[in-house]
């Protein structure tokens, strides 16, 4: 993948859009992360080419944007984020879904990558607000949004069906103005 496809770059991580060719890197990364995702992510990780191809169709819709975080040196994918359910008009809001992988987590790549995504979201994508819904015991995810300046706005009981039950979530969010101040 050419570095000219990068939309933004930090010291270690670059951001580009998710594409079909990513199945070569992502399917093994998803397989190694099945246990890591079980309690926190809805649905089973995508581990087949057909499921990945079907999943990509959601990004043909204007309300969903999919990105991967790559190491600048090698281009290796180390994380991913979606901006889902984008509402335009007087909201200009999107909901984040993100994950690292068993072999890439705990190194600061997600903090750097999501910081770049915030720049894109509040810049060329024209959004005003990003939300993240996080289970109260998902400490790595809570740490991530706190580091990036998100604010806890509320608590949503039985918010999403994950791993066999409806799970409570905390709602965290950041606006363009808050991001400017951090
Ligand atoms: C949530 C999730 C994306 C967080 O990823 P992460 O790897 O912890 O985030 P980062 O890549 O920014 O790494 C940050 C951690 O690396 C540590 N770190 C190690 N070396 C570092 C370095 N060189 N630079 C910065 N941080 C470094 C930081 O101290 C931090 O750890 P801490 O939170 O214990 O303080 C990840 O845990 C995950 O994918 N979980 C499963 C899916 C999930 O829960 N998704 C979100 C649903 S709401």
Structural notes for this entry:
It is a single chain. With 182 residues, the protein is of the alpha+beta class. The chain has a single domain (3-181), classed as Aminopeptidase. Helices cover 28% and strands 34% of the residues. It has helices spanning 23-32, 34-37, 49-56, 109-122, 139-147, 176-181; strands spanning 8-9, 13-17, 65-71, 77-87, 93-99, 129-134, 151-162, 165-175. It has an eight-stranded mixed β-sheet. The protein binds coenzyme A (COA). The site of coenzyme A has 20 residues, from helix 2, strand 5, helix 4 and helix 5.
Total E-strand runs? 8
Major β-sheet annotation:
8 strands, mixed
N- to C-terminal separation? 32 Å
Number of domains: 1
SSE layout and pairings?
Blueprint: E1 8-9, E2 13-17, H1 23-32, H2 34-37, H3 49-56, E3 65-71, E4 77-87, E5 93-99, H4 109-122, E6 129-134, H5 139-147, E7 151-162, E8 165-175, H6 176-181
Parallel strand pairs: 5-6
Antiparallel strand pairs: 1-2, 2-3, 3-4, 4-5, 6-8, 7-8
Bound molecules: coenzyme A.
